[in-house]
Amino acid sequence: MKLVKLEEAQKFDNSEKCKVMEYPLNDKDINCATAKITGRYPDNGYCVNEECKELIYVIEGHGVLNKKNEVIHFNKGDVILIDKGEVYYWDAQCTIVMPCTPAWYPEQHKLIEE
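Now predict its structure.
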């Protein structure tokens, strides 16, 4: 069992519109972060996780998750599974919790210009 206190979380700004708090579990199989999204992320194009699945729980707010051929509207209390390899972008005003498996790492997260 492991407890990670809020004061141990590391703050990252993926962009001006996507602020992340990552909780250092130091586990290669799973990790957890929260994110506050306030607009479109990424600013242009799409993003993709090449190795990790993300399970999103919407703590507050609402928005749209845009895949290349699908638009998913979500609200507070909803859960979204983003599979590895899915290409998407956010357009939202929300706060989310996102555990990832295997543990998320920056090199597998790609931005796709379009």
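The chain has a mean pLDDT of 96.
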